[in-house]
Amino acid sequence: MSDTQAAAEAEKKEHPEKKVRVTVDGKPHEVRPGTYVVSEFKKEVRVDPSLELDQVINGQFIPLDNNATIEIKGDEVFVSHVPQGGSS
Prior knowledge:
- The chain is of the alpha+beta class and about 90 residues long.
- It has one domain (about 15-80): Phosphatidylinositol 3-kinase Catalytic Subunit, Chain A, domain 1 (Ubiquitin-like (UB roll)).
- It is built from 2 helices and 7 strands; from the N terminus they run H-E-E-E-H-E-E-E-E.
- A hairpin with a 2-residue loop joins strand 1 (about 20-25) and strand 2.
- It starts with a helix and ends in a 7-residue tail after the last strand.
């Protein structure tokens, strides 16, 4: 098996063909369940890379670092926004 084929097999295991629904900025998106690096997930759901992404859990907005990983199972809710300012 070539490196390319091995990578494709690993991708299938991490993101099976079945898709689940997530909501980003009030719009539904169909994505494969599994683990994503936040920056890659933003590409998948067409969120501008310069925007920050929060996951809404029980009404709380949880900021997601671009380098963190998230587990997608279905029905997750996300909101993108411009980066917040620093200290003043």
